[in-house]
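User: We ran a pulldown and think these components assemble together. Before we commit to crystallization trials, I'd like a predicted model of the whole complex to look at. Sequences follow.
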Amino acid sequence: MGNAYNVMAATCPSRTVLHRIGARWTVFVVNALDNRPMRFTELKAHIRGITSKALTETLRAMEYDGLISRTEIPAHPPHVEYALTDLGRSLLTPLRAVREWAESHVPDIESARAQADAQR
Amino acid sequence: MGNAYNVMAATCPSRTVLHRIGARWTVFVVNALDNRPMRFTELKAHIRGITSKALTETLRAMEYDGLISRTEIPAHPPHVEYALTDLGRSLLTPLRAVREWAESHVPDIESARAQADAQR
DNA sequence: CCCGGACGGTATAGATTTGATACCGGTATC
DNA sequence: GATACCGGTATCAAATCTATACCGTCCGGG
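Assistant: Here's a predicted model for the assembly, 240 residues in total across the polymer chains.
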């Protein structure tokens, strides 16, 4: 498809993009918002182990990059809703594949680790 | 396909697997070894911006996880060759998709960032 | 009115990870 | 010899992440 960007070049903008995708929690947020918008606390509960700070920073960065939208809903009680944008949804396909790979290859990696440990 | 692992659970082994895949440089190494084995210095030159230390650590971790193999070749001059294992090759498909997403969506993200900057 | 709790975060400090820079031993070439 | 390349280590400073505590707003109950 020959586009002009190459992640292997240190200065290429695609590098920063890949860096952002690869950031600790981005994958989890994208996967969590897969089929519906969520609120802050809902996300925090869903992605077990994330702290408020990490979640806030991840959401801010993703919003800045146009991957998610943040909407304050003035209902009673008011609350905040995070949702994938079209761009974010387009990222869903590759990231879901990564997630599925991770979930389905746990035994392979665990046995590789066990074998490496036994070696020493 | 219903496997037993869920990355959203903090204690799930798949979490550590995903963490490893998401580590700074893993994506680059997998993509670099896409169509042939490479030597240490070759990899370092190919993945612009990586330091020896980062590359060493990434390679060690990936070898431990069974994603790549490290072979010392006793030719003259002797050298070291890194190659994807079958497991590593299976990771290639999802990660190549991520790489391609990054390379093809740079303009979208840049314009989202520009728009966010203009907002303030 | 007062109390308590949920929501959506901040502030701060300590631990962990990363990166820059320098260096090193072995092999081969000049 | 002297020099250079390969495949790394060692060391230390800088950036990042985590844990923990805290905060203001809004709401419902008593």
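The domain at 13-119 of chain A is CATH 1.10.10.10 (Arc Repressor Mutant, subunit A). That may be worth checking against your pulldown data before setting up trials.

User: Thanks, that helps.
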